[in-house]
Design a protein that fits this description.
33-stranded mixed β-sheet; 6 helices; 13-stranded parallel β-sheet; mainly beta; elongated; about 950 residues
Length: about 950
């Protein structure tokens, strides 16, 4: 598309020269425009309004434009009007050029435009004729040789009458995106318009296979059928269009074929097949395209290696093979393309080293080799590439040091060697990068200090040195052009330089994961510090003291100070704040109230105290609120459950709150996680939780809640984690009227309560999320979003473990330390994806179910301190993932099974079962005990 406006502009210039020539000749003629023609032109003028719909386009491409018809005056000679050319003999209007004239309106079928049967050239390009179609009227211009309706918002069906314009030499309907040919309409046009030299239909819907007959039009010079919905296969025979200079087939996604075959004596200058389905390897005969200046095969399916004959295209100025499947090494013959200005081989599968012959490309301005598999050192080829503006080498396996000759690229604007294995120091000194605006050296192994020249670049906009091994202090920046600085994941130390606060254009500052310490003292007036800053990340450093920077009052939306030693934080009225992360510091005093615009607020793992202010409920856009692991106390504000319709996570764990859980939740809410663990909350579980249809994690553990089992939670379709441990829950778990309760549940912790009766067999039968899960077909991920992951504390393998992230494949059931009785339900054997099972410290009786042999993912089994009897099933030896087994303090008898994991268990797995014998116990078994079968 970038080349097409240039063609339009060239067409415009040639047309203008013709107009000036004809007009000057006419000035000496005695013929004047007829009254009928003048009247028709004035009516045409009055049918449109004047509106500059393409102002930005004209400005970008420097196209001459003005309202030509504004200068058409009644009573004057219409042959002298702008855009009008008359025949010198007859006075008939033969050319009408109203391109770029700001016209806006509809061309109806009865328009006076069609009253000029002698027209030879009609140019209406770059206007706005929305609602108009290429109607039958255009077919009346039987003498027409040039028709240009491009960029004019024509739409609808293109009249087949246009194919009757048999004298047409040039037809341009480009970028009338809503226009389309009737069925077989394009074929008729190709068959009838035998004199065509230029055919441009970019953006017009043809929805046809590529017509072979078009390649028989020996007159063709320029053919652009881009974005025409062509499909089928491009002809694979030799193309004998000796005059053809331009061939564009861009964005015909379903047009396939091999690389076109052109005769040796071709005139091709531009060949652009971008975003088509052409495939196969490049032909060595492509070296015959001796006049070729532009070759664009990007976003195609071409594969194989690049033929050395490509080096024969010595007129080439632009070569783009990006986003294909090319492989192998770059042929050294590319160094022969001394006229080349742009080379793009990015996003392919090239390998090997970068050829040193590229140093011959002295005219090159853009070199893009990023996202391939190039290896070895970057060749020291840049001494002669003085015109290079853009250098992209990111995403390869390049090693060694950055060559010093890069310092000679005095015209360089863009330097990107991101994500390689470059090492050593950044080159210094350099001659001067006065035009350099973008530097990305991130994700390498660079070491040493940041060289001084990087602080003195007058045009630098973005600087990325992240994920390296840089050391030393951050220097003082000399110019304020910078918009982004990323020095994260290095080993920099010292304080943040005061000059950073004078960067009035800075929008992003990433300094996380270094050894920076302290807040700098700055003399900059507080109201003028970083007025455009949007993102500020200082996390994972050694910064201490009090944060009081009043930066980005109207712009700052992301502030991350987590994992530091900050003791105080001054909240400012940031009007755009969205993410405010202060967790894992040493903050003291009352809980800060975030700006109302905040949707993520975390102050977890600090030393905050006092009560929660109801003002926090004014943050009506809040999605994630995490104030866990502090010393906060008092009662919870009633508004906490319903202050934000977007609330997703409410994490209050490990504080000292008392009173009751908020009883009201908004209908249709998006709450995903509620974590109140480790407080002193009491009362009942709110029945209103049954409207939290998105709830995945409910953790009420370690409180003083006095209630029966909340069976209505079984209706929540997405609930995966339920923790009620260490409360005062009591009674039987009950029977649910829900057909399949708790279908998504996979982490269940009811331990240390007063539940009684039989184990909840109905619920255990419904745990579909723990049955026959094929982890090979699952995408392993952590619960939560990209920035925030859920956490929980579980007791497994007799260890209390905090899972700071909950893997979606982790499953456990802990019903220990209650008053359950009766036998263990056999249906537990169906939970084949279970990792941990703890039924200890209850009053369970009967045998260990044989169905436990199906728990083939089980890692921990604790049945201790019950009244289980009978033998230990030999079949449990098939549980090869079992690491921890506790069967102690039961009434088990007989021979302890041998084999696999059972060889690793010690006495404490079995003690206080007087009837057990065999390894590892000292008691030996009798013959009867060995032979007696398992129950």
């Amino acid at each position: 598309m970038s080349k097409h406006p240039l063609l339009c502009f060239l067409f415009f210039l040639s047309f203008s020269q013709l107009l000036l020539s004809s007009s000057s000749s006419f000035s000496n003629s005695t013929k004047i425009c007829s009254h009928a023609q003048s009247l028709a032109l004035l009516k045409l003028k009055n049918s449109f309004s004047i509106k500059n719909s393409y102002s930005e386009y004209f400005k970008h491409y420097h196209l001459p434009n003005y309202p030509k018809t504004e200068y058409w005056k009644e009573g004057s000679d219409c042959c002298s009007w702008d855009g009008v050319t008359c025949d010198l003999v007859t006075g008939h209007v033969i050319e009408l050029d109203l391109s770029c004239s700001w016209l806006s309106g509809t061309i109806h079928s009865n328009s006076t435009l069609f009253l000029f049967p002698n027209l030879r050239s009609l140019n209406l390009a770059f206007n706005n004729f929305s609602g108009s179609s290429v109607s039958d009227g255009f077919g009346r211009f039987s003498s027409l040789t040039h028709l240009n309706l491009s960029y004019s918002s024509f739409s609808g069906r293109i009249s087949p009458e246009i194919s009757h314009l048999s004298s047409l030499v040039s037809l341009d309907l480009s970028w009338n995106v809503g226009a389309e040919f009737a069925l077989d309409g394009f074929d008729s046009l190709v068959q009838n318009l035998t004199k065509l030299q230029k055919l441009h239909l970019r953006g017009v819907s043809i929805s046809s296979v590529f017509p072979n007959s078009l390649l028989n039009r020996s007159s063709l010079i320029s053919l652009d059928l881009s974005s025409c919905r062509l499909h089928g296969k491009f002809p694979d025979h030799d193309i004998h269009l000796l005059k053809l200079q331009l061939l564009y087939l861009v964005e015909n996604y379903y047009l396939s074929g091999n690389f076109p075959r052109f005769s040796e004596n071709n005139s091709l200058i531009d060949l652009v097949l971008q975003s088509t389905n052409f495939s196969g390897e490049l032909r060595t005969s492509m070296g015959n395209l001796k006049s070729l200046q532009t070759l664009d095969l990007s976003h195609c399916q071409f594969s194989g290696s690049i033929p050395a004959s490509l080096g024969n295209l010595k007129q080439s100025k632009a070569l783009d093979l990006s986003y294909c499947q090319f492989s192998g090494s770059i042929p050294a013959s590319l160094g022969n393309l001394k006229s080349l200005q742009a080379l793009d081989l990015s996003d392919c599968q090239f390998s090997g080293s970068i050829p040193a012959s590229l140093e011959n490309l002295t005219q090159i301005t853009t070199l893009n080799l990023e996202w391939n598999h190039f290896s070895g050192k970057i060749p020291n080829i840049f001494y002669n590439l003085r015109n290079l503006n853009f250098l992209y080498l990111a995403g390869n396996n390049l090693s060694g040091q950055i060559p010093p000759s890069i310092g000679n690229l005095t015209n360089l604007h863009y330097l990107d060697v991101f994500q390689n294995q470059l090492e050593g120091a950044i080159p210094s000194p350099v001659i001067g990068f006065s035009s350099l605006s973008y530097v990305d050296l991130g994700y390498n192994l660079l070491n040493g200090t940041i060289p001084s020249w990087l602080y003195t670049l007058p045009s630098l906009v973005e600087l990325d040195l992240s994920h390296n091994k840089l050391i030393g202090h951050i220097g003082e920046f000399q110019f304020d052009s910078l918009e982004k600085i990323d020095l994260s994941m290095n080993e920099l130390h010292g304080s943040i330089p005061t000059s950073i606060f004078e960067l009035v254009n800075l929008s992003s500052l990433y300094l996380f994961s270094n050894n920076l310490s302290g807040f700098p003292e700055t003399s900059v007036h507080s109201n003028s510090m970083l007025p455009k800053i949007q993102i500020l990340d200082l996390s994972h450093n050694n910064i201490s003291g009090i944060f009081s920077w009043n930066v980005g009052k109207d712009t700052l939306h992301y502030l991350n100070l987590s994992y530091n030693s900050i003791i105080g934080f001054e909240m400012h009225p940031w009007s755009s704040m969205e993410i405010l992360d202060l967790h894992s510091n040493l903050l003291q005093g009352p809980l800060p109230t975030p700006p109302n615009s905040t949707y993520f607020f975390s102050v977890s793992h600090n030393k905050l105290s006092g009560e929660i202010s109801p003002l926090i409920c004014k943050a009506s856009s809040m999605q994630i609120l995490d104030i866990s692991h502090n010393n906060l106390s008092g009662m919870l504000p009633h508004c906490l459950g319903n202050f934000s319709k977007d609330l997703s996570v409410l994490n209050l764990q490990r504080n000292q709150f008392h009173g009751t859980i908020p009883q009201t939740f908004l209908k249709g809410n998006y709450i995903r996680t509620l974590d109140f663990n480790g407080n002193q909350l009491e009362g009942l579980v709110p029945r209103s939780l049954n409207i939290c249809r998105e709830l995945e994690v409910l953790d009420l553990g370690n409180n003083k809640i006095n209630h029966t089992f909340p069976h209505w939670l079984g209706a929540l379709p997405k609930l995966q984690v339920l923790v009620l441990r260490s409360n005062h829950f009591h009674g039987q778990t009950g029977f649910s009227k829900i057909k399949s309760p708790f279908m998504s549940l996979r982490i269940i912790d009811l331990a240390h309560n007063d539940f009684e009766g039989h184990l909840p067999e109905m619920y255990l039968r419904s745990l579909k999320a723990v049955m026959n899960i094929d982890e090979g077909d699952m995408t392993r991920r952590y619960m939560g979003g990209t920035y925030y992951q859920d956490s929980t504390v579980v007791t497994i393998k007799r260890l209390e473990m905090e899972f700071v992230k909950i893997l979606n494949t982790f499953t456990t059931i802990d019903l220990s330390c209650n008053k359950f009785q009766g036998e263990i339900p056999k249906c537990i054997g169906n939970l084949s994806s279970l990792r941990g099972l703890n039924l200890s410290h209850n009053y369970l009786t009967g045998h260990i179910p044989l169905s436990f042999r199906n728990l083939n993912m089980l890692e921990s089994l604790d049945l201790s301190s019950n009244k289980l009897s009978g033998r230990i099933p030999q079949e449990l030896t098939s549980l090869t993932f079992l690491e921890v087994l506790y069967l102690s303090q039961n009434l088990l008898t007989g021979f302890i099974p041998r084999g696999n994991q059972f060889k690793t268990f010690e006495n404490d797995s079995y003690y206080d079962n007087s009837g057990l014998c065999g390894f590892p116990l000292s008691k030996r078994c009798t013959t009867d005990e060995i032979l007696k079968p398992s129950q």
